[in-house]
Amino acid sequence: MEQIAKKRKKQYSYHTQKRKKYVLEPGLKGFFCSCNVREKDCVKESYNVLNEYADELYGAENKEITNSADADDLYEEIQAIKSAGSIRRFQVVDSGAKNIVFIRTTLEDPVNLAKAIVNDVFSKKEQKTRYLIRLVPIEATCKAYLDDIKKSFESLIEKYFSNPTTFSIVYNHRNNNNLLKDEVISTIADMVIKKNPEHKVDLTGAQVSVVIEIIRGNALIGIVPDYIKYKKYNLHALCENTNVEKPTAETDTQ
Where is the THUMP domain (predicted)? Predict the structure, then answer.
């Protein structure tokens, strides 16, 4: 009887651990990916397009561990990653919001990869995804408090706002009403202008946009070049191929 009890306890522990998965948390870099239907397919498409262009830019990654879009398989993947002593270049995490996928990355500069993708889609007018709609690079994640957002953004100012440029600020929120949109935008704008008074706000053609996505208790910050020009990095809107069936266009929550 004692052996049976131990076996049952072991099985319960295994199945409990099996459901564990990566979650969105402070300190990540990656990609904000949106869809309207079939998140699992969006994850697969995200992996495909990110790996395709990353292989071209940085060389092929070791493929011994297969990226998994199935939450039930993530526990096994985590164990395999730990055994290999490394983490994958791209890995889905639980965003905490419906139809929003976050792909964390080990790349130092996710912006460079996202730019290569949108530039190629825009120039070739070739629709590469059906379920993945927007692919926005995120350079910092933090807790969704104004002080945390300021601190995270401070680390990005030197990189993007030393020289005069035009800029805009985009703020969206999901499952969080604790922050005041106007307060966040004015705070970030003041920080940019303080860095260099020659910066100018441009809401129709900014050279760079500060994209702030609030999801529950987390804030995602991306400094995105030509965000307006490239249709908010909407991969469907960037191309003119109307022969591929597409989900209804996404609407941001602001």
Answer: 120-225
Listed by start position, the domains of the chain span: 24-233
Give SS3 for 166: strand
Rounded to an integer, what distance in angstroms lies between the CA atom of residue 79 and that of residue 160? 37
- For residue 90, give the nearest of 66, 111, 124, 112 by alpha carbon: 66
The dihedral through the CA atoms of 236, 211, 33, 158 has a sign that is positive
Are 124 and 235 within 8 A, CB to CB? no
Mean pLDDT of 2-8: 54
For 235-253, the pLDDT digits (tens) are: 999 986 444 444 443 434 4
CATH architecture of residue range(s) 24-233: 2-Layer Sandwich (3.30)
As to burial, measured by CB atoms within 10 angstroms (0-12 exposed, 13-18 middle, 19+ buried), residue 188 is buried
